[in-house]
Structures are given as C-alpha cells and as structure tokens.
Design a protein that fits this description.
Elements: H1 11-28, E1 36-37, H2 39-46, H3 50-63, E2 66-69, E3 73-76, H4 81-105, H5 108-126, H6 130-148, H7 151-172, H8 177-193, H9 197-217
Antiparallel strand pairs: 1-3, 2-3
Length: 222
C-alpha cells in the first residue's frame, strides 16, 4: 500500500504491473465476478497512478475480464458457464491447430523445454501444489504456441484465455482434475516430441474437451 509521499509508478511499466496483478487476482478469485473496481483503490494497491490503473482496466475490458457499467463504473465481468463452454469449443480448434503446427515446426530446443515443463508439472501434481500446477499448465500452452510459429492463432488463444482463466483455474482445483490434465498434456507433449501432427492435434482437443465435460456436469447456476 502506498503511503503519503510515496512516488507512484506511471507509464507503460505501471500499466503492465497493474494489468498483470489484477488479472492474477481475478483468475485466483481474490476479486470476484461482479465486484466493483475503483481506479484510486487499484492504484494505491498496486503502487501506480490512477491513470495507469484506468489504462489497465481498459486492457482487461478489451480481454473481456472487466466491464464498465454506465454511471456505475468498472466491475469484474460475470462469465456464464455456457459462455465458458462456447469459448472452450473455439479453443479446441485453435489449440488443436497450434499443437499440430508445433509437431511440424518445433525445434529440438523447444521440444526439450516442453519436456522439461512436463517434468515439473508431474512433480507439482504429485506434491499437490495447485498454484504451481496452474502456472505450469499455462507455461505448457505458451511453449506450444511458441513452437507452433502461428502468431495469429496464438494471439486469438491468448485473448480467449483471459475470459475463462478463472473458470479453468477452479476446474483444476477439483478432485482428480490435475491428474487428468497431466495425462492429457503428456499426450500432447509426446506427440509433439514425436513429430506426430495428427496425434498432437487430437490430444490438444481432448484436453479442452476434458474441461468442457467437467463444466457440463456442473449443476445449473453453480
């Protein structure tokens, strides 16, 4: 928290800090759907100027994480379960494409990074570290996108991910889901490493289908 006389950060770096911190808080449930987001309070919390906090909100509005209500200000956007399913269905196509391209285009060094990340994920699952699991799953997707060399699909996935990050994080906390996700991502990585494009695409789509199935089993309104 910024005390009196503390110099607040401004500029591009300040906006990025506020944007990243708020995105993480939304994803992990520290701020919840429908909660108001007040620029001076955010600026004080993140040690940035009010203008930097406003620009961070604008960026998250563009991602679909935040919305502005006329005469009421900004709030965390409420995303319905049906919208999450629809986004995951779109992600199936895009993630499948990225996995296919990664199998075709990844360098040996990029394959090594995917395998190393998978090893860390295996340890995190075994040690029941949900936050670390979440971060490593996100790193997996980043590494696949990097290896795919398909920037348009990568940018579309990144924008869609912001809208459903909170839901996917909560899904990963469900009993057995982290183990299932590990098995699914293992198939993706091994297919990419083996340069098996069809198998990589199918494995990536299967991973997203796991999340869809979990959501469809969830009681309405939950």
């Amino acid at each position: 928290m910024s005390g009196e006389g503390t110099r607040l950060l401004t500029g591009v770096r300040a906006r990025r800090i506020a944007e990243q911190r708020l995105r993480e808080e939304i994803t992990r449930g520290a701020v919840v759907p429908g909660q108001r987001l007040v620029e001076p309070e955010l600026g004080e919390r993140y040690g940035v100027t009010r203008n930097s906090a406003r620009l961070a909100l604008d960026a998250l509005i563009a991602e679909g994480l935040v919305e502005r209500i006329p005469h009421r200000g900004a709030r965390v956007r409420v995303v319905s379960g049906s919208e999450v399913v629809a986004i995951l269905e779109c992600r199936q196509v895009l993630d499948g494409l990225l996995a296919r391209k990664a199998a075709q285009n990844a360098t040996d060094e990029q394959v090594d990074r995917l395998l190393a990340n998978l090893g860390r994920l295996q340890r995190a699952v075994a040690e029941r570290e949900p936050l670390e699991c979440w971060e490593l799953v996100q790193e997996h997707h980043r590494l696949v996108a990097e290896a795919a060399h398909q920037p348009l699909a990568s940018s579309l996935v990144e924008r869609l991910q912001g809208r459903i990050a909170r839901h996917r994080f909560q899904l990963l906390l469900r009993p057995g889901r982290s183990q299932q996700a590990l098995a699914e991502l293992t198939e993706v990585v091994h297919a990419v490493a083996g340069r098996r494009a069809d198998a990589a695409e199918q494995a990536a789509r299967t991973h997203l289908q796991g999340g869809i199935d979990e959501l469809l089993l969830q009681p309405a309104g939950a």
